[in-house]
Amino acid sequence: MATEATRLAPGQDLLAELERLFAETGAGAGCVLACVGSLTTAVIRFANHPESTSLAGHFEIVSLTGVLSPDGAHCHIAVSDGEGGTIGGHLMLGCRVYTTAEIVVGLLPGVRFTRPFDPRTGYPELAVETMKPEEE
Which GO terms describe its molecular function (predicted)? Predict the structure, then answer.
């Protein structure tokens, strides 16, 4: 596994920058290995809700996990507020970095992730393809 690391600056969009970083690698499959930082806006889609919720304030990123593909990222985030209350769900566009977001991404050789539509779930779902060395 190869890795890429970056630091996001105040005001940057966490998901947009994560997808940009991954796209620039040209990799076919990846995952979020680590992320620590803070947000002023957290946009999260909660379980079994069709729409996202935008939260304003100061939040610590206590967890970010996800699968990265050329078709886009599927990430979940947990953030805590100033009293330690923690909330989490699906990471959406619009999460704005407060002071920093330090991110490490793993790049998986020999694998390509795609997200074809799955009629059973109604969502684009992960498909894993093993690549031949000449296809990488």
Answer: DNA binding
